[in-house]
Specification:
By secondary structure, the chain is an all-alpha fold. The chain has one domain.
Amino acid sequence: MREFITVARRPFLAVLLFLSLQFAAGVSVMVVRAVSGNGNIGDLFSPDTSVIRIIAVTTLVCDLLMAVGCMVLFRSSVYFRSTYRPLSASWTGNITAMTGCILGTAALDIFGELAEVPDMMMNVMMELCRDPWGVAAIAVAAPVAEELMFRHGIMGHMLRNGCSVRVSLLVSSLLFGLIHINPAQVFFAVPMGVLLGMLYWRSGSVLWPVALHVLNNSVACVQVWVVGDGVGDMALSDVFGGRIAAFAAACVMAVMCAVVMWWYCTVNGRRKAVGLR
């Protein structure tokens, strides 16, 4: 237990850094609104155009600071002193896994819609996707910063210091989900964190989960550009002809994702990595 607490020290500091930056971003928005003559805290995250630009810029800055902070906190010098050596997968294996993850994210979207998980940030996210700074924050800065923190940072740090793959994957995925706070995002982010973690562990590179994360967030922006204000009322179940058919399709995609990722991590990964359990 003492060893686990010692290993968990840096991940704890990373989460504390993330929460501190988010708090600072919220305070910055309130200060700017107060200075501009509108200090209504209840409208802090309202989809007002002037507020969206402030949120977009502060989010982008915080993501960049978090990326730099994680690179310092999980400094590269410790990697060469640990026993962990990541598995290496082929390009075809990694691309196949990406395809499986895409199927998994599609299934999660459908399950979330059918479960009617509340999304408290939908209006704000839609407006952010219309703002250039918001797109930069959502589609680029956030994926890079979050993967450096949760996969290359927290999960990689735990693996390099003797934690099992399962524990490292579980801890990083739960933290990744919980920091999103918004119920709809938490519902999606925890299993998504598992897929991203498997991709990171098996490929041995943070670039693959970054690519998947960027793709996922970019699709959300493209949906807003193409559909417009109607994206909030768009129902995936209608595409499949009803809720039952949509549920069946989601189950099939989830199974396909599970099979692909099992193959990716076992059959396609017979070579062992030093220090993994």
